[in-house]
Hints:
With 216 residues, the chain is of the alpha+beta class. The protein contains eight helices and six strands, in the order E-H-E-E-E-H-E-E-H-H-H-H-H-H. The chain has helices at residues 10-21, 44-49, 68-78, 89-118, 128-149, 161-175, 185-195, 198-215, and strands at 2-5, 27-30, 33-34, 38-39, 57-60, 63-66.
Amino acid sequence: MKLYSSPLSPFTAKVRIALYEKGLVFEKINLPWHPVNGWKGKPAEMLAINPKGQVPTMVDGDVKLYDSTIIFEYLEDAYPSPPLFPTTVADRARCRLLEDMGDTIIAADTQDLVNEIFKKPDPATRDNAAIDLATSALHTDYARLERELASRDFLLGNFTVADISCFIPISIAAYLGVPPSASNPKLLAWIARMQQRPSIQRDLQEFTAALQDLAA
């Protein structure tokens, strides 16, 4: 199994965490990326598989896949233990909605912070109005997740792809200075539980190492 990856890519992190959770051995091919200069080159094999030219792209024997959601569903079908989706039809539908919230809503709001803070090292060049809008949107996202958690330890009760998809952009937003606040106690407790998982710890270590490499 081979995964074209970037340690700073939230969508690749989603796949890496799933692979770690399932205990699968894979070859990780990290593509060099810089917040200002962008990609330094993409392998021809990856481009032949993925017309979008994006990570994650995965090869498992004769199976060649791209898009984190499609890869995740393939992994769940091909390697079902331990499961990362709920068992009931209704819960699986809710799981997919929350996965999509992480992938499209929270990730998009976080990307606005990435564009204005991470990609613009000089604060004088940043659009503060855009940062304020992204911050407000993220706090709306946090309030929704606070309600979704209710009395559960994880979003669906047990740990699922929904937790992974929501946690990754939230952790990036927190790194950029917009974490959940004390008004989201359930969400803060959920984050602490997420950070205790070995798969999450491993990926956060890779994320931190990549940031240190950029700063070197």
